[in-house]
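User: Please run a holo structure prediction.
Assistant: Happy to. Please share the sequence and the ligand.
User: Here you go; the ligand is MGD.
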Amino acid sequence: MGTDELRATTRRIVKAACPHDCPDTCAMEIAVENGRAVAVRGGDMPFTAGTLCTKVSRYLERTYHPDRVLHPLRRVGRKGEGRFARISWDEALAEIAARFAEIAVEDPQQILPCSYAGTMGLVQYASMDRRFFHRLGASLLDRTLCSSAGKVGLRITLGATVGMDPERCADSRLVIVWGSNPIVSNLHFWSRVAEAKRRGGRVVVIDPYRTLSAEKASEHVAPLPGTDAALALGMMHVIIGENLIDADYVTRHTLGFDALAERVRAYPPGEVAAICGLGAETVVRLAREYATTKPAAIRLNYGMQRHAGGGMAVRTIACLPALVGAWRDAAGGVALSTGDWYALDHGTLERPDLVRGRPRTINQSALGEALTAARPPVKAIYVYNNNPVAVCPDSRKVIAGFAREDLFTVVHDLFLTDTADYADIVLPATTSLEHWDVHKSYGHLYVLANAPAIAPLGEAKPNSEVFRLLAARLGFDEPCFRDSDEDLCRQALASDHPRMRGIDWETLKGRGWMRLAVPERFAPFAEGGFPTPSGKCEFHSETAREMGYDPLPAYTPPRESPSTPSPLRERYPLAFLSPPARHFLNSSFANLGFALQDEGEPHLDIHPEDARPRGIADGDLVRVFNDRGEFRARARVGPRTRPQVVVAPSVWWKKLSPDGRNANEVTSQALADMGGAATFYDCLVDVARA
Ligand SMILES: Nc1nc2c(c(=O)[nH]1)N[C@H]1C(S)=C(S)[C@@H](COP(=O)(O)OP(=O)(O)OC[C@H]3O[C@@H](n4cnc5c(=O)[nH]c(N)nc54)[C@H](O)[C@@H]3O)O[C@H]1N2
Ligand SMILES: Nc1nc2c(c(=O)[nH]1)N[C@H]1C(S)=C(S)[C@@H](COP(=O)(O)OP(=O)(O)OC[C@H]3O[C@@H](n4cnc5c(=O)[nH]c(N)nc54)[C@H](O)[C@@H]3O)O[C@H]1N2
Ligand SMILES: [Mo]
């Protein structure tokens, strides 16, 4: 037998899921030969359709990267210096257990879990870890870095974090991509948008920045950041004023139309246009096109959420489809997240019933504040699935916290991140190729299994396993601390909800992916049936009123904006955006040669009108600064961004940037109106030649 034949006989294909924080949640197939992964490709799940993004198609370079942390480490240098010596797992676990036990005797709330979305699998994102920290009585963490404002906005309006099936957008005649750059951040959705366009549909991108998606759209509308709710109210003013509503749908399936009609009278196109920095005719044309084109889809995303009025902006835009009856068609409606369609009982995995006492909750978007000023203090922090030194706002405060000599810090990661440099103990994590998991998605309607393709590299361990071991060391003897990862996968799917019919772990594991039990052309609200208290789309919401919000859609101006008069605006006249870079995934991949090569160097897009008076030429090194801090980037002068808005695609590792800093030096810990969410894009700066 020749070597080729031998290879062929030992090759096996493992069905997996991309674990990253991206709406696409791709199906993957991993080819394995003699215990080594040798190829990855996109799976046959319809949404993935056999292709992966440029980052994940090179996943083996990440998995087998020479910089992987492969055994536990203990700090030998100063905090932040990143000097470590190898220790054994036994030493590492013994030290963590001893420190946690000692602090817990005093007050377990002084221990803080710090995790976010390094992996989105239900097991490795939130299961054994939550059980462990609940049982310990540790502080709870409110995970608000990404989507919590919009989730509340949707819940008030539609009743849950639900919407149209993004896969159906290929059939839309109009797609409004609002505050999103899908070519970068939602690639497989973009292929549906491109298909809609090929079939003669129109694609309008609403974004202050001329993104790749904006360039490829039929039309690009560039409002000032944080003004989207005003634009939506202006569109409703036109739609209602010109009687372009779907009166039958409004009567049968909405609540509070008269109050809404009254409200939007205060938003005539001229005034809205002035707020948004657009022409009034744009507002009118957009409204007419939206109301008269069927089916029309709105892909709403995170751009407008990361502002003072982010929750209300999502709520306001989410009212549009009911007004024009867009929900009648599977290819119409609004898509922000499909998360709640899964109807899973996360409590089974996370076991909130284990919580000891009444621990406080710490907001992750104000982590810097918590680590420097919380009372009682945070004495120990355990970071996993998260790189807070790079990704949390207001870095100066975050770093002041992590630099505290009296803070005991554990970081569990694949790489020595900016955060790991501050760790007392570093633990090696597995990639998704090395552990079990099960995935839902927030951008489609499939469930995916992830089987390990290879054994853990070096001494790496999955999150779940480390918490199992720590629970044993701390004497937690509840049986749930002995569940295996496959037990957890099984429990994750244990739901008797009709949409989960037929989806159990054994079946899913065999097939790799399964669609929720919903029709192919899923038009969830064609006949109303919203999961709100009234069963209608709530233009007027008592839920909102009870939560202390305006019961009607409204425009909440950004705190820091060229469109909001303030003393700050006089000193820092430019709006600063730091949206996802194409070749990074938040700060993941941003340490890998291939991604760094593709992304170039930290840069700042600035319009010629803003560059000229500052004496900035294309290619100059510039300082981006405000009262919170500063970082440096290479200026790209051109029309890619609109006047008064500068843009620095992110999130770069600080220690791999020329000045050791990144965009979060200037972002603020102020919170959005809803969900305690971060306001990364509600930020004024000035720029000068360095
Ligand atoms: N390649 C890549 N993909 C990613 C990520 C990544 O880092 N890299 N991150 C993942 C994660 S965690 C998330 S949450 C999603 C994010 O997904 P998206 O929200 O789709 O993120 P972006 O693609 O940056 O799109 C946001 C756009 O909003 C614009 N914007 C900023 N402020 C405003 C505003 O006030 N109004 C409007 N209309 N637009 C505004 C920005 O210029 C930007 O182009 O992407 C996921 N996918
Ligand atoms: N300026 C600015 N800041 C932002 C944003 C922005 O647009 N602009 N976006 C925000 C958004 S939307 C988000 S979602 C957050 C994202 O913030 P994070 O969720 O922190 O995402 P990453 O930066 O990718 O860091 C995830 C870390 O988890 C590690 N990891 C991966 N898999 C595992 C695993 O199985 N186990 C363990 N223990 N670790 C693992 C990765 O190696 C990586 O270091 O950032 C936010 N920060
Ligand atoms: Mo995110």
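The pocket of MGD (ligand 2) is lined by residues 21, 116-119, 124, 145-146, 384-387, 390-391, 412-415, 417, 429, 463, 578-580, 585-588, 650-651, 663-664, 667, 680 (CB under 6 Å).
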